[in-house]
């Protein structure tokens, strides 16, 4: 079949690969033109830390390390919230670059598999939701996009509406530790779409960043209130890692 015939029959199939050969976008990290999401240099910088950043237990933000809904749950992260990873997340959240979520979620999925954290029943993946007003403003929920890609990488099931955010709140980064807790009290609620089979699975929460753990705490509290269990928290980047490491008991 000649190119002209193919073009007339299926114009998209012919034009799309041709266009992608020429179309470039700025790399969200260094702004150089690239045909991938990240340029090759930045892609290399985003490789998970070697050896992989270990899953580390949560220190509960309200009740200390020995009690509270998230205490002892593993947090897995691709890396620390710094450098290229930080710039990628900023582009995803504030630079209108939803395409950045897919490679980050994929990396988190590889990280999850490398750490073999799935013991027992396979978890159901639930992203931390945005309130509808924030969702309208941004146009997408970055945690949901990360979770979609994470599930493509791991094969784990996704329940995108497992949790709902029922109140609009101030952005957490603008608040101190105590105000963060008050800001998120009662804002999450379990969604109506859970089947009996899904209710039997432990929940893996997915978010973009883990900072003080207040969001994970509030989400876990809502899930526990509904009689469900959380088995861990997966994030692209973890902030305050030095502090987390310092508070971890020595092996
Ligand atoms: Zn770059």
Write the layout of secondary structure elements.
Blueprint: H1 3-9, H2 11-22, E1 25-26, E2 33-34, H3 40-45, E3 56-57, E4 74-80, H4 83-94, H5 101-115, E5 124-127, H6 132-138, H7 142-154, E6 163-165, H8 177-184, E7 188-190, H9 196-199, E8 203-210, H10 214-225, E9 230-238, H11 241-247
Parallel strand pairs: 4-9, 5-8, 8-9
Antiparallel strand pairs: 1-2, 3-4, 6-7
Helix pairs in contact: 1-2, 5-7
Zinc ion binds near residues 30, 38 and 42.
The helical percent reads 40-55%
Order of helices and strands: HHEEHEEHHEHHEHEHEHEH
> C-alpha Rg, in Å?
20 Å
User: How many domains, as an integer?
Assistant: 2
Count the strands?
9
CATH class of the largest domain: Alpha Beta
Shape: globular
Ligand identities:
zinc ion
What is the CATH topology descriptor of the largest domain? Answer: Rossmann fold
- The poorly predicted ranges are 62-66, 244-251
Structural class from helices and strands? alpha/beta
* CATH architecture descriptor name of the largest domain: 3-Layer(aba) Sandwich
How would you write the strand order of the largest sheet?
Answer: 3-4-9-8-5
User: Could you give the distance between the termini?
Assistant: 66 Å
Mean pLDDT: 82
Largest sheet descriptor: 5 strands, mixed
SS element count, helices: 11
Question: What fraction of residues sit in β-strands?
Answer: 15-25%
Region (Disordered): 50-70
Biased composition (Low complexity): 61-70
Protein name: ComF family protein
